[in-house]
C-alpha cells in the first residue's frame, strides 16, 4: 500500500511536470507566432475600413453594481473599435444601479420586440439613450435570475452582431480589446466559435474614469498571487492547448463567443456553477454532433483587468464555487469522457480536466499528509521528504517564472522592471502561502457539492475603480 | 566553465541518494532539471528586461537625433536631393549598426504618417529620405534572408513604406509553404508590381483566403484605384470556385461602383449554387441600384433560402419604388417569421413618407385585430428612428 501511494504520487507529479513542460513549449511557439502574425498593422486595417470590421456586442450583466456601474459603462463605450454595441443587463438590482444608468446616460424605455431565443427570466423593458454620445448603449432590465448565466442569456437574446463578448461590469477592458480579440476570427479558415484572452488583476493598477492609466502588480498578497496564477493559466495552459484546438474553458470574465452557436447550443446554463466551462463544452459538442469544423482561439495579450479577491474570506468563496462548478461540470458532462465521437473534447479535454484539474487538489492534499505520515513513522528520512517537497515546489515555481518571461516577451506592461521581479519573488512564496489555501477551498467546494443541494452565490466586496469612492459590500451574482 | 564544481555536486547528490529506491533517484534527477529550468527562466527574464530597456534607449536616442530633421525635410516644399539629406542628417550608413535601420524605419514612418495626415508630406523628399538612409535596401535584404515570421514582418514594413522593392525579391515568398508569408507577399506584389499586378487575383488570390486577406486586398485595391482605373473585377471570379473569394470580389464591385458588371451579375444568379454568393449578388444589385433586376428578384423570392430572401428584402429597401413597395407589403402579410417581418418593416420604412404611411396602416390593422406583438414590432421599427439607432 505504501509503495502504491508513493508511486502514485510520484508518477502523478511527473506526469504533471511533463504536461506543463509540453504546454510551455507549445505555448512559447504559439505566443511568438501570434505576436508576429497579428501586429498593429492588422488592427489598423479595421480602423481604416470600419465598414469591413465585423460588429461585436458586449454583454455585461449588472446586479447591485452602483459603485462601479458609471465608470464601467463609460469605459466600455469608449473602446477603440468601429462597430460595437454595449448591452448592460440589469439583473433586478435592488440598489441604485438602474437609477444611475438612466440618469447618467439619459436612458428611456423604447418599444422592443423581445424574442426569447434562449431561456432567461422575464425581461421588463429595454432602455436606450436619445443622446448620440451613448447611441451604442442598450440596457435590458429584467427580473433577477440569481445567476450570471440567466442575465447573459437575456443579453444574448438582444445582441445584434455575429459575435459577443461575455464580461462583467467589474472588468476593465483595454482600449484596443475588440480589435485584438477579433483578429483570430478574421484570420481563420475554420469557423472560430470562441476566443479567450489573458486576464489580470486590477487591484494595484491606477484607474481614472474606468480607464487603466498605469498597470502595476497588486499591492495585496492574494491578488498578487492570483496575478501569477492567472498568467500561468492563460499564457501557458490555454495558449498551449490552443495549439491543438483543445481549450477547455473560455473564461466567464472575458471571452468572445459566436452568437449563433451559443443560441444553437441552448445558451448559458443557469443551473451551472461553472457556466463558462459548461458553455464552452456544449458549444464544442454542438459543433461535433453536427459535423461542423470549429476552432477555439486564445489571444495572449492582456485585454481584461478584473478585481481579485482582496482577502482570504473572498478567496474562499471564489474557490469553493469553482470547486463546486468543476465537480458539477464533470458529473453533468460525463458522457463526453473518453468518447471518441466528441473528438478532442472527449479524448483530451475531459481527461485533462478530470486527472489534472479535478484530481490535483485531492492528490496534493492526501499526498502531503501521506508523506508526513511516512516521515513520522520513519518510513522515509528527511532527505527524501524534502526532495519530494522540493519536486512539487519546483514544478509550480519553474512554470511561474517561465510564464512571467512570456508575458514580458509580449510587451512591457509594468513601467518598472522591478515590478516583474516582485512577481517572481512572490511566485517563490506562492506554494507555501497561497497554494495550500486554494487546495483546501477547492476541496471544500467538492464536499459542498456532494453534501448540499442549494448554494448561495457569494458576496464580493467591490472596491470601485476610483480610489476615492466608498467601499461597498454587494451581492455578486457573477 | 566550472565543470568540476558541477561534477562535484552531482557526485555529492549521487552519493547522498546511493542505495535509495529508483523512484527517489529519479525524483532527484527531476528536481535538478526543474532547478535548471527555474534558474534559466530567471536569467532569461533578466535578459529580456535588459533587451527591452536597451531598445527603449536606442529609440529615444534615434528620435532625438533624427525626428526633427526628418520632419523638416519631409514637410518642406523645397526639393532636397539624397546627398543634401545625408549631409543634413549627419548619418553614415556604412558605419551604422544593424539595429539602427530597424529603429530608424519606425521614426521615418511615424514622421511620414504625421505629415501625411496633416497634408504636408513632400513625397519626393520622403522617397529621397528612404534612399539616403538606405531603408528599402535594408528591408529587401531581410525579405531575402530572414526566417518566415521576420520575413512577413519585413514585407509588411515594405508595404507601409510604400513598396519600391524589386518584384523579383518577392517571387520566392509568393509561393512559400508558409501561408501567412505567402499571402503577405502576394498582397504586396499586387500593390506594387507594374507588369502583371493582378496575376494572383485572377487565380483566387490564395487557397487559404480569410477575412483578414479581404481587408488587406481591399486596402491594396484602393491604392491601385488611386493610380488608375481598376479592370472589371468580375473577370477574376469567372473561374473561381472559392465562395469567400467570390463574395469578396462582389463586395469590391459594390465599393468601386462597377456598374458595367451588373447585367452579368443578374445572369450569375441562375448559375450560382452557393447561397452566400447569391445573397451577395442580390445585395450588390441593391447597393448599385440596379432597378432592371426588380422583376427577377421578385420572381426569385419564394424559391430562395432564408439568407437570400433576407438579402432580397434589404435590396428592396434600396430599389425604392412602387413595385418594390407592393412586393414588401405582400411579403410582410405573407410571413409569420418575426425576424423577416422586422426586416421587411425596416425596408418599407426606408421608402420614406410613403413607406411610413403604409407602416401606420399595418399598425392600425394590427391594433384592430388585436395582434399585440405585431403592434409592438412595428412600434419598435418606428422608435428606431426616434431613438438613435446603432
From TrEMBL, chain A:
CDD domains: CESA_like
Keywords: Glycosyltransferase, Membrane, Transferase, Transmembrane, Transmembrane helix
Organism domain of life: Bacteria
UniProt xrefs under InterPro entries: Glyco_trans_2-like, Nucleotide-diphossugar_trans
SUPFAM superfamilies: Nucleotide-diphospho-sugar transferases (SSF53448)
Family label: Belongs to the glycosyltransferase 2 family.
The name this protein goes by in its record: Cellulose synthase/poly-beta-1,6-N-acetylglucosamine synthase-like glycosyltransferase
Lineage: Bacteria, Pseudomonadati, Bacteroidota, Sphingobacteriia, Sphingobacteriales
Automatic annotation (TrEMBL), chain B:
Keywords linked to the UniProt accession: Membrane, Transmembrane, Transmembrane helix
Keyword Transmembrane helix part of the UniProt annotation: yes
Organism: Sphingobacterium allocomposti
Segments passing through the bilayer: 20-47
Protein name according to UniProt: HEAT repeat protein
